[in-house]
Backbone:
């Protein structure tokens, strides 16, 4: 751990500003209460505080290497006692030598000798405050580093989980599409070839976008349109799509590939559970700092849901919970044969 006063100039300036203030208080006390000439008071205060300030920089290393351990508290106290005595001895030796060589006033030298015990007590008190300050900084710095490390691990875990969720959806979609292509090969090879071309384009696009977690809604709609073209070849006139996209929502950011699983869910549980034409309606609008996207599709409410129902929706809910830390951003309604999913995407 680097010295806190060396790695940060602001801390170093603040440290010396404190000792300049102490020097001023020292000077005022000596000249006002002990009637020592102002020149001698300034010299005494400057030497004693400067010596303490410089030696105080070294006391950081004592705090750094003597960790507080409750199991060995006696050893910790002993080590600090030895360090404090050594610090005070060095301060006294240096400051006393300088003062006696720079000031030759007899009255002052007598005062200096008589006040020695009080000066040592005062320096001991200041040393304790300095050591305590360094310990508080050490604790804060360790706590801050731990918080940053935890945040980094959480971010990494969230990104890994998001990647896992998207990787789970991709094979599911490919499997369904390849099954459709296989079925079309026996009926209409041209449509099968077109579907294979569209699928290749869609997968290439999804790989390119996969590095970005958030993309503009306009790009996401382009992705969805390519996906829709694949399914349109598969289902023909039984599948329709309508859009009502507000212009101001197009540049807003959304999770990439978020609409595909919802469209797939609408197609799967609309067409396969009804003999009617299925219409999927996509709407977007903006309220304050939230982008709203609604996907509706008609279906037969009397048909029993097949296994696997809602897999795409669950993945979308999980992604939203991971990205935004909220579980109320995906709203599901199923009334009178209309199934609706409404996404609320924060924009702050």
Residues:
């Amino acid at each position: 751990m680097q010295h806190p006063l060396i790695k940060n100039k602001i801390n170093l300036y603040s440290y010396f500003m404190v000792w300049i203030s102490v020097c001023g208080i020292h000077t005022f006390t000596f000249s006002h209460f002990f009637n020592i000439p102002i020149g001698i008071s300034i010299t005494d205060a400057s030497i004693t505080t400067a010596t303490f300030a410089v030696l105080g920089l070294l006391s950081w290393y004592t705090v750094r290497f003597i960790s507080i351990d409750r199991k060995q508290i006696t050893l910790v106290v002993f080590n600090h006692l030895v360090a404090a005595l050594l610090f005070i001895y060095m301060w006294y030796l240096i400051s006393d030598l300088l003062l006696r060589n720079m000031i030759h006033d007899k009255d002052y030298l007598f005062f200096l000798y008589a006040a020695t015990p009080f000066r040592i007590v005062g320096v001991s008190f200041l040393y304790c405050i300095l050591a305590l300050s360094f310990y508080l900084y050490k604790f804060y710095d360790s706590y801050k580093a731990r918080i940053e490390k935890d945040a980094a691990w959480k971010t990494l875990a969230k990104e890994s989980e998001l990647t896992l969720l998207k990787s789970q959806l991709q094979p599911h979609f490919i499997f369904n599409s390849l099954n459709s292509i296989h079925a079309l090969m026996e009926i209409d090879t041209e449509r099968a070839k077109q579907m294979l071309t569209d699928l290749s384009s869609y997968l290439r696009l999804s790989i390119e976008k996969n590095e970005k977690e958030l993309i503009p809604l306009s790009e996401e709609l382009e992705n969805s349109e390519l996906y829709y073209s694949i399914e349109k070849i598969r289902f023909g006139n039984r599948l329709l799509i309508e859009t009502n996209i507000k212009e101001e929502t197009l540049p807003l950011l959304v999770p990439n590939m978020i609409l595909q699983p919802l469209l797939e869910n609408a197609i799967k549980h609309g067409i396969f559970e009804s003999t009617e034409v299925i219409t999927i309606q996509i709407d977007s609008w903006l309220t304050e700092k939230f982008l709203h996207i609604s996907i509706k599709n008609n279906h037969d409410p009397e048909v029993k849901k097949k296994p696997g129902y809602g897999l795409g929706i669950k993945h979308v809910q999980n992604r939203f919970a991971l990205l935004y830390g909220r579980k109320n951003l995906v709203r599901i309604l199923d009334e009178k044969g209309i199934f609706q999913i409404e996404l609320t995407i924060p924009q702050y």
Observations:
- Residues 173 and 265 are 11 Å apart (CA to CA).
- The first strand starts at residue 214 and ends at 216.
- The first helix runs from residue 9 to 33.
